[in-house]
Amino acid sequence: MGNLLRFEFRKLFGQKSFYVCTLLLLLFVFLSAALSKLIAENADDASYPALMTVNILRSSLQSANLPLILGIFTALFVCTDHADGTIKNIYAKGYPRTAVYFSKLTAILAAAALFCLSVWCGGALSDALLFEAGGTPTPALFAALAAQLCTVFGYAGLFFALAMLVRKTGGAIAACIVAPMLFSLLFSTADTLTKPSARATIGWTVFSALFRRRAYRAKRCLPLFCCPLPMPPLLRRSAHCSIKTAPSDK
Predict the structure, then answer these.
(1) With 12 labelled, which of 31, 189, 200, 244 sits at a CA distance of 20 to 30 A?
(2) pLDDT given at position 217
(3) Is 225 in contact with 160 (CB distance < 8 Å)?
(4) DSSP 8-state secondary structure symbol assigned to residue 131
(5) To 5 degrees, how large is the angle CA 164–CA 167–CA 173?
(6) How confident is the model at residue 221 (pLDDT cuts 50, 70, 90)?
(7) Chain centroid to CA 162
(8) Is the pTM above the cut of 0.85?
(9) Separation between Cα atoms, residue 79 and residue 85, nearest integer Å
(10) Which residues are within 8 A (CB) of 161 and not within 5 positions of it... i.e. 6 or more apart?
(11) DSSP secondary structure, 215-234, as one string
């Protein structure tokens, strides 16, 4: 297991797409901040809400289009081994599939955490350079950021599962782009039509039905990377509730 983890992390930090995606995330954050500043300068004070540091940090992940970038990176990272045949060499050395999938998922989660950290740092820097909005971090802010991180981990699990099932770079990228929109629509509909107690059950039923047909391709490790799948819609709601119930920043 240790050798697999070292291999995956060495591949992670040696892959150019990791640094390109990080730069894209920071670029999106600064462009969004610059656009917000331009709108704020041309709007009436009464019609445009005051920008606070905590609000900027909360919205940084959305401004950076993190789910989209993370989906593309995950597809590239996972499908590379299948495209160049590296995965066959790994299996030939006798490593079990569960260990191989776990090491890859660990590297993806680490990349997701680093992406979040980069975006939050970019949001704080853009706040200091463009707005000087001020505001004191509160426990509610850290709770909201922790909920966002868990949501990103849920997305990472979803993208990893799709990439491992598709195994083709182009198809995996397309699946990672379309799947969040499709699942968001399904869960929004379920959220509207069902009671809160039934949402988790419906979420698991939807994902089980989607992946049951191709479960033979990952018999031993399907629970490993399918368990995080219901997390994005559920934790997105948790993050929304934590922000909604947080005291107003002054």
Answers:
(1) 31
(2) 45
(3) yes
(4) I
(5) 90
(6) very low
(7) 14
(8) no
(9) 10
(10) 211, 225, 226, 229
(11) GGGGTTTHHHHHTTTTHHHH
